[in-house]
Amino acid sequence: MQAPSAGRGGISTEDARALTERIVGLSQATATRVTINARSRPFIRSADNRITTAGESSDVSVTIMSAFGQRVASVTTNLLDEPSLTEAVRRSEALARLAPENPEYLGELTPQDYPKVNGYYETTGGISAEDMASATALAIDQARGAGHVASGFIDVQNGSQSIATSEGLFAHHKSTGVASTLTVRSPDGSTSGWAGDEAADWNQIETARIATDAVRKCDAWRDKTSLDPGHYDVVLEPTAVGMLMLRMRRTFDGRAADEGRSYFSSPSGGTRVGDEIFDPRITIHSDPAAPDAETAPFDGEGARQAAETWIENGILRNLSYSRFWANKQGVAPRPAPANLLMSGGLDSIEAMIASTRRGVLITRFWYIRGLNPRTISYTGLTRDGTFLIEDGQISRPVNNFRFNQSLVELLQNVDMLGEPVRVAAGENSSVGVPIIVPPLKVRNFNLASVSDAI
């Protein structure tokens, strides 16, 4: 069998099926799972108003998991010739025989019924170096014209995921994603502005707006003034909201709630499912078929990933359950959300600012780290454009802050919501988990201390 290579769409369904069947056929374990990740990654980086790096990498990796009863181990390889695959299977089996028993391993899944998800966009899969270079040149030209220095990253990730088990399960999903981010700084480094987009469809990346917004923020944040820390009304742009909600996505864990380790734990035991815990305008759901935010319709075990509502009108509706914990609790398994979609409203950022007597406008955050899972609290820094609002207008640029904030309180203190958009919510500027969120105006946000960072 000829080893498949990763094209812009990963590998074909036929090649994936043939490869997984071949590996399962080599196995001598009592249970086997094969996962294939095939990726192509075009990219372009810029710094100091010039393109510094451009290229494309591709890879096909195979993870082979072997089980003998409750003893489980896995091996990953990107050597796909017959001898290398055979060696990987045997190594996986040898490690499994040495592994301690895993009491939470429930065996492999049989064939599943998956929702139809079309996550591959030819506009992204067919992106050219010229497309990315043109977008980068536009940003550099705008920054240079304003007397600033631009640094940017366009990251494109195309490919496929496949999974198969010795019980006959097979699933295959093709996907695309692109993130375009831009930081513009003054030559002396004293001020900066940032803008970015993320999408599955390259046509949804607003190249001109990114350049204009980053330059505008850099200009507006010049000559920052001091503002004392404290609790403020804040207007959070969508990226700032998305960076927090990216962390929120990981909190809907039924086991943590059942074991008393979560805000979603009930004081009397069990969980708070059915309780109203957030502002009634807050609804959070996930959907692998969400337009321009598609994800695979299966999780890492091959379980069906369906649309789920986690928060509905402020009420906790569901929590995620692994197969093991669901079996123990007598409930249906429910994979964790692979994307996060938050409801919004009709308020513009301009209307939020106009309604604020005294508050702070925040572009985005940085270096966010967890504090307390029981209150879903995080700390981090504001970055790339922080402004004081007085009497309904932006009055002056101000220093950055370190925040210490409970996301529970944030979602309880919402005043206004805007239109949801997909945002570049990761800190590393790469394509990440699809996050669709609105801008928010929030009361009593804890800007705990001043930060000298730019």
From TrEMBL:
GO annotation, biological process: proteolysis
Domain (Metalloprotease TldD/E central) ranges: 135-217
Cited PANTHER family: CONSERVED PROTEIN, TLDD PROTEIN
Limits of the Metalloprotease TldD/E C-terminal domain: 229-448
Pfam families (alphabetical): PmbA_TldD_2nd, PmbA_TldD_3rd
Coiled-coil ranges (or none): none
Protein name as catalogued: Peptidase C69
A single GO molecular function term of this UniProt record: metallopeptidase activity
InterPro entries: Metalloprtase-TldD/E_C, Metalloprtase-TldD/E_cen_dom, TldD/PmbA_N, TldD/PmbA_sf
